[in-house]
Amino acid sequence: MKFTATQIAGILEGDIVGNPDVEVFKLSKIEEGTEGSLTFLANPKYTSYIYSTKASITIVNKSFEADDDLSTTLIKVDDAYKSFSKLLEYYNQVKLNKTGIESPVFLSETSSHGNGIYIGAFSYIGDNVKIGDNVKIYPNVYIGDNVVIGNDVIIFAGAKIYSESVIGNNCVVHSGVVIGADGFGFAPDENGKYQKVPQTGNVIIEDDVDVGAGTTIDRATLGSTVIRRGVKLDNQIQIAHNVEIGENTVIAAQTGIAGSTKIGKNCMIGGQVGIVGHITIGNRVRIQAQSGIGRNVKDDEVLQGSPALNYGDYNKSYVHFKNLPKIVDNIQNIEKKVNNNE
């Protein structure tokens, strides 16, 4: 897939300095640019590379003025970083713009789908499934009975969506995701054996949610596990039954959230965080990586540690943690002196 400088400038509403007909077919870092590649310059510390890069086209800010000869064609824009991101988004849309139903595919006669659909080979679409417009379902995807999928959704290869799940508009579900598996519900009987508690609820994912590769979202025991609008989930996250995650919250990889916990809006949760069940975490909470959360958390708290402490208190305490051996020695020396003076 090739693009000319004229085409790219048209997409970005930029001005060309150089050859308008030069073509690119790949992307590169500015310091690693080669012929046929497109790059950008946004950070001033990389400015020196623009004079040596072999990239055919470089996106720069309009304020950039060259101090030496250039071999690369420039496209000048208001904000090089934002424009490059816009171009990446456009490129992904073009690259992922597949349509049609490949063979073999199992598509239940009772299912329905909108326009612009793509279903990759070896996918399974169950009974009474409803799929919106411009949905892309890549190969080896399983979609169980009674699932509802909105418009402009991308489901990458190998994802599994169990029955009764609901996915909103403009969502992305990456490879290896499992949505709607049973929650971890078992009850001990009089003999100490664990009997499974039926998980009869579902998962609801609202609009504009991204679910990273290998993430699992369990169905509710009763009711719904809910991922609210705008949530962004990294790879390999475990979300247990009846959890609710508020709008625009972002969660990094390997975090685990136990059952029935409610997380508020606009939270930021670092990697490998562990959160116990049946608690409430407020809005705009920030939790540092590898923290353990075992209590309710108020709005706007910043936490670190396991069990997690207030972030400022943790940092003050850490100064003493790392000096504990020296502090213990000092205390013991003081005790000796006191005992010798008795």
UniProtKB/TrEMBL annotation:
InterPro entries: Hexapep (IPR001451), LpxD (IPR007691), Trimer_LpxA-like_sf (IPR011004), UDP_GlcNAc_AcTrfase_non-rep (IPR020573)
Entry's Gene Ontology BP terms: lipid A biosynthetic process
Record's keyword terms, sorted: Acyltransferase, Lipid A biosynthesis, Lipid biosynthesis, Lipid metabolism, Repeat, Transferase
EC numbers: 2.3.1.191
Uppermost EC category: transferase
Gene Ontology molecular function, alphabetical: N-acyltransferase activity; UDP-3-O-[(3R)-3-hydroxyacyl]-glucosamine N-acyltransferase activity
Gene Ontology annotations for the cellular component aspect, listed alphabetically: membrane
Domain UDP-3-O-[3-hydroxymyristoyl] glucosamine N-acyltransferase non-repeat region: 21-89
Coiled coil: none
Reaction(s) the record says it catalyses: a UDP-3-O-[(3R)-3-hydroxyacyl]-alpha-D-glucosamine + a (3R)-hydroxyacyl-[ACP] = a UDP-2-N,3-O-bis[(3R)-3-hydroxyacyl]-alpha-D-glucosamine + holo-[ACP] + H(+)
Active site: H241 (proton acceptor)
Pathway: Bacterial outer membrane biogenesis; LPS lipid A biosynthesis
Cited HAMAP family: LpxD
Family according to the record: Belongs to the transferase hexapeptide repeat family. LpxD subfamily.
Entries under NCBIfam families matching the protein: lipid_A_lpxD, PRK00892.1
Subunit structure: Homotrimer.
General function of this protein: Catalyzes the N-acylation of UDP-3-O-acylglucosamine using 3-hydroxyacyl-ACP as the acyl donor. Is involved in the biosynthesis of lipid A, a phosphorylated glycolipid that anchors the lipopolysaccharide to the outer membrane of the cell.
Name used for this protein in its record: UDP-3-O-acylglucosamine N-acyltransferase
